[in-house]
Amino acid sequence: DYRTPLTVVILGASGDLAKKKTYPALFSLYLRSLLPENTIIYGYARSHIELDDFKKRIGSYLKGSEEKKKAFLDLCHYHSGLYDDKSAYDEFDKLIRKEEAKIQSPTSKYNRLFYMAIPPSIFIEVSKGIHGSLIENNGWSRVIVEKPFGRDLESSRVLVSELGRLFKEKDLFRIDHYLGKEMVQNLMVLRFSNAVFEPLWSKSHISNITITFKEDIGTEGRGGYFDQFGIIRDVMQNHLLQVLSLVAMEPPLSLNADDITNEKVRLLRCIQPIKLDEVVLGQYIGTQDGKQEGYLDDKGVPNDSKTPTYAAAVFHVNNPRWRGTPFILKCGKALDERKTEIRIQFKRPDNFLFQDEDISRNELVMRIQPGEAVYLKLLTKKPGLDNSIEQTELDLSYRNRFENLDLPDAYERLILDSIKGDHNLFVRDDELDVAWQIFTPLLKQIESLGCIPEKYVFGSRGPKSADELSKKFGYVRSTGY
Ligand code: BG6
């Protein structure tokens, strides 16, 4: 299939996502010679931008030699047109066909990949626009869509069925870019291929599991968008839930995409309704010195917004493997650091020898970012004459362990998979549905009760109650590490 020319169409090409993620990912694939030999990249958006200006704009986000950048930018075209005008899409299609006709296809086919880097409000409009001449070509036509896939169960179902009328499920690729991250990829390998982990992976040995997402930046001008969704919809309902399902699912029948998704869906169905008193909501305020603005100061955010920028919630998985082991999910913006990690905290061994010591728990930490790492906290005798116990760790930091580490960005992997037609790392419709079933009652409850989020200062650890929640559900903070 790599001999078949490919046209990548980026809808919303003048936006943030396209310039920060989509084009840089395509450029990396280009550098690795992973794009089909004859690839054309066509940007489409409303803004009138001269091609040279457009190239400068995306060029500033590409990392590589000037020569390679230039060669890549030579593949890029730009066309401005309306999103709600059918004839604009027909005109666009003619332009693409003209470009494609300049290339002799060895397979006589031409493939097209549509990347929707557009706001959710115009999802359906644009989908209707490309449906028709643009996707009807003699090769394959695939469509990549970005979250948010709706705001709740109802709107997500509408979106799924509208898109389902226009495109076949096999041609749709719903991105959750967390699935493309290296450490998330590594989860199945770590869990299922290691004799030292696999037998311990259950409530019998694991006391609690925490999945944390922390960002040290606020909404930074994205407040208008963010305020309609909030952190639960922005991060927890998708990225963190995906991580949870990979951590907790039963072994799939095979590595085939459907088998894996079947297990994830089965797991998600076992999650009990989330209780409001097991949830902490927060919203950040500015720092006292005025250097960092609060959420409410972000333009586009209403002064009285109750939208949470931080959330922690406890999930109970009601199945034989996990009944009794809480999963604590935490995510927030404007915190003290940028870090995403999974912490598996083990139970204290039933060992009478050290009963009296207040010792830390064994903990397996998988750091998704920054600085991918897996480390296992364990206890050792303090070296030397001293007989006390100390916590240390077996540490697999990728940067130290693997030479010439060149990890692909999540988007790079996912775009490559969509070109290959591999659905493994994309979200299936029933998976999306069950994710919304889990969160919709909670979101409705929060909104109807008008829950006021707890304030926390920009750059802090987040709301105090979140630490208390973790403690209440068994998380023991280590004493040594
Ligand atoms: C996006 C959210 O899906 O993920 C953003 O909409 C968030 O709010 C981003 O900043 C985080 O992605 P990453 O890859 O930087 O962790």
From TrEMBL:
Residues 9-186 form the Glucose-6-phosphate dehydrogenase NAD-binding domain. It comes from the Eukaryota. Its EC number is 1.1.1.49. One of its GO terms (biological process) is glucose metabolic process. It holds the Pfam family G6PD_N. Residues 188-474 form the Glucose-6-phosphate dehydrogenase C-terminal domain. It catalyses: D-glucose 6-phosphate + NADP(+) = 6-phospho-D-glucono-1,5-lactone + NADPH + H(+). Keywords: Carbohydrate metabolism, Glucose metabolism, NADP, Oxidoreductase. Pathway: Carbohydrate degradation; pentose phosphate pathway; D-ribulose 5-phosphate from D-glucose 6-phosphate (oxidative stage): step 1/3. It is an enzyme of class 1 (oxidoreductase). Gene3D superfamilies: Dihydrodipicolinate Reductase, domain 2, NAD(P)-binding Rossmann-like Domain. GO terms for cellular component: cytosol. Belongs to the glucose-6-phosphate dehydrogenase family. Catalyzes the rate-limiting step of the oxidative pentose-phosphate pathway, which represents a route for the dissimilation of carbohydrates besides glycolysis. This is Glucose-6-phosphate 1-dehydrogenase. It comes from Polysphondylium violaceum.
